[in-house]
């Protein structure tokens, strides 16, 4: 199997429209925008919106501008003969905005490919929250099989007519804030992100994508399963030829859901003894759904390389028996980055930093 | 790269009259809480597995689902509902393609690698599927499901087999896979088939 390297990354999110800006605001994060609740909840709901991006031209114009900028910053020009993997769960926001009747994934991926003048194949992955990790896994498989040497994984999650109302209807949203693994966690805070990770099997870089795992458990189609979390970790490690003790850091899903955070913690405790250091980016970014896997990895790697670490002022829930680390582990070499989502989907990738 | 035998096919394009009754008989009752798109997917996947004489999907098999329009009718309903406030929770869930993956996992008594990936050229998707299936000892169940225009549910069950020596040809179009060929593999120049 050919090794796959992460050779470029970029992010536009609530912290700013570049990774540099996001790092500058890491310790003075942007207060989430407040969106009026539509009925089930009262008052307003926090929403981590991307600011400073004109919306006059509608969803398509905004998406095009953000996607073009982020792809360029990740070095898309060096990859556009390779494969483009688009990860999104927000459907076609333009079609929804215009109340067009027929959702069309092919038209959507074709449109994004045209915006980027993409010449290679364009795949679209849409499995709710796990879309980004699934796109990374697909791109890794595509490169390891030798179908090309370059790929761009693009996570796109932008406000649209369905996602926020849908989550509000399901009563999954917090009205106070994102508190991953926290004692007072009370739901999700959704966010917007456009993120890109450029992969290559032809150029070396400090971070390598070793592989991962994807486990769908249909017994609980709307919640995470502890058993499936454990299986996801074990299969990911086996696919990468690693033991549990060789993982130094886990980027958790931990979206602040009372039920899912507990299932995730239980699953991790069964897969790792002891559980390695844990990190969450959701208090900073919100839960960026289909883009979350790509966005969180992009920001995490930037934090690690520039010596930054998120702050977690919220009190951890002692019942979970795990908590977020207050600093980066020393001599960090391997990260397991996971996302859990609707459809009983549990997905993870393993990243490895070159030995220093 | 592995060689795969096309163990069975369900080419329901369009689905036959009475397919919902057939599905209900197979499940022992009408499926609840699934939209039309997910029911179409279940129908074709179960039909395909029955033709391969498998009761359940093996633990180390993978599942890849694709569609042009996805659960488009559920999206229409959810958008209509948002005009007046919030969508109904069940309607919103039905807009997510991953709900069909969960339904398939439950019905096939299987927990494993299931993905929803779209590409307008089915052969390009099969090519990616071959790369994904490299680690999966139980092969693949692969389907294309659509509810707009023509209600369709097209499925292939691919089983890894020992390498076949001669007679390989470059795959010309998707019809080759759905009609004629017996084996498929990822060759140095792309997808190859054996008739």
Topology:
The complex is a heterodimer of chains A (356) and B (195).
Chain A: E1 4-13, H1 19-24, E2 33-36, E3 44-48, H2 58-73, E4 83-87, H3 93-97, H4 105-115, E5 122-125, H5 131-144, E6 150-157, H6 163-169, E7 190-191, E8 193-200, E9 207-216, H7 226-239, E10 249-251, H8 258-271, E11 277-279, H9 282-285, H10 292-306, E12 334-341, E13 345-353
Parallel strand pairs in A: 3-7, 4-5, 4-6, 10-11, 10-12
Antiparallel strand pairs in A: 1-8, 1-9, 2-3, 6-8, 9-13, 12-13
Chain B: E1 3-12, H1 19-27, H2 36-51, E2 62-66, H3 72-83, H4 89-94, H5 98-107, E3 113-118, H6 122-132, E4 140-146, E5 152-161, E6 169-170, H7 174-180, E7 183-187, E8 190-194
Parallel strand pairs in B: 2-3, 2-4
Antiparallel strand pairs in B: 1-5, 1-7, 4-5, 6-8, 7-8
Helix pairs in contact in B: 1-2, 2-5
Task: Describe it.
The complex is a heterodimer of chains A (356) and B (195). Chain A is an alpha/beta fold and 356 residues long. Chain A has 2 domains: 4-200, Thiolase/Chalcone synthase (Peroxisomal Thiolase, Chain A, domain 1), CATH 3.40.47.10; 207-353, Thiolase/Chalcone synthase (Peroxisomal Thiolase, Chain A, domain 1, 3-Layer(aba) Sandwich), CATH 3.40.47.10. Helices cover 30% and strands 22% of the residues of chain A. Chain A is built from 10 helices and 13 strands. In chain A, helix 5 (131-144) packs across helix 10 and helix 7 crosses helix 8. By secondary structure, chain B is of the alpha+beta class. Chain B has one domain (7-158): 3-Layer(aba) Sandwich (Peroxisomal Thiolase, Chain A, domain 1). Chain B has helices at residues 19-27, 36-51, 72-83, 89-94, 98-107, 122-132, 174-180; strands at 3-12, 62-66, 113-118, 140-146, 152-161, 169-170, 183-187, 190-194. The model of chain B has no long low-confidence stretch (mean pLDDT 93). At the A-B interface, helix 4, strand 5, helix 5, helix 6 and strand 9 of A face helix 3, helix 4, helix 5, strand 3 and helix 6 of B. Strand 5 of chain A pairs antiparallel with strand 3 (113-118) of chain B.
